[in-house]
Amino acid sequence: MPEFASPDAAGAELAHVKADTLIESLPWLKRFHGQIIVVKFGGNAMVDPDLQRTFAEDIVYLRYAGIKPVVVHGGGPQISKMLDRLGIQSEFRGGYRVTSPEAMDVVRMVLTGQISRDIVSHINEHGPLAAALSGEDAGLFEGQKRGVEIDGEVVDLGLVGDVVGVNPEGVVAQLDAGRIPVVSSVAPDIDEPGQVLNVNADAAAAALAVALGAAKLVILTDVAGLYSDWPNRDSLVSVIEAEELRSLLPSLESGMIPKMAACLEAVDGGVAKAAIIDGREPHSILLEVFTQGGVGTEVVPALAH
Hints:
By secondary structure, the chain is α/β, with parallel strands linked by helices. It is 39% helix and 25% strand. The protein has ten helices and 14 strands. Keywords: Amino-acid biosynthesis, Arginine biosynthesis, ATP-binding, Cytoplasm, Kinase, Nucleotide-binding, Transferase.
């Protein structure tokens, strides 16, 4: 008669830990089932092959858990690399890339032709799930040119703009078909038909989250979250109310301002929660969505005191 080895104590304990982890996710599975979560993909996760893979796994997991993920992306490092390769000069003024028509051609090529396709390809390794959309498709985003004020003077940034309108029907159609939309952050110029603008991907993700009535916005970046006393690593803020963040915004490090402003825009527009998380951590999206503590910094409307 064959002998069957009973699982050792360590193995049994590990199994219980796994079960506890799954059960911890239950309230969040119930909360977000059938809801839209917009994820802004950026930072190191966009250029690290291992993080690209784990990001795709997280997005597919959300989809099969009954959530409707929507991915929005930019691509600053890849755009800079391609401009350098083509010998096209690119400068930054006030934190924004000055975008000439020649540079805009490269922006469109890299965002819609390279990065979107790469993300779709990684997701579709798990099945025919993802579809690429540009902010130009069916007029998804409406853009308007913007300048930036430097030392009291407004500087022309070329083909750089803000998202001033969203027509989400194309994204909704993909979601209704069971697909994962992957959206690149360019927008037709409402003042100049035929012209396309380079828009901030954080702001585009926030505007889309509001237009879709998303339950949550998640922004991946290269820091653990918002610090109340940077560089003190112990000062990481887990949850912050919108009004407190609004008062802090002008004093933040310049790279964090557009990300936290996007979180504010989302919450102000009716999205219940917006979070900044560290995209350098594998599976950070699953940790943020499905665990009690989450990771990073979550922005919420005023809490009941």
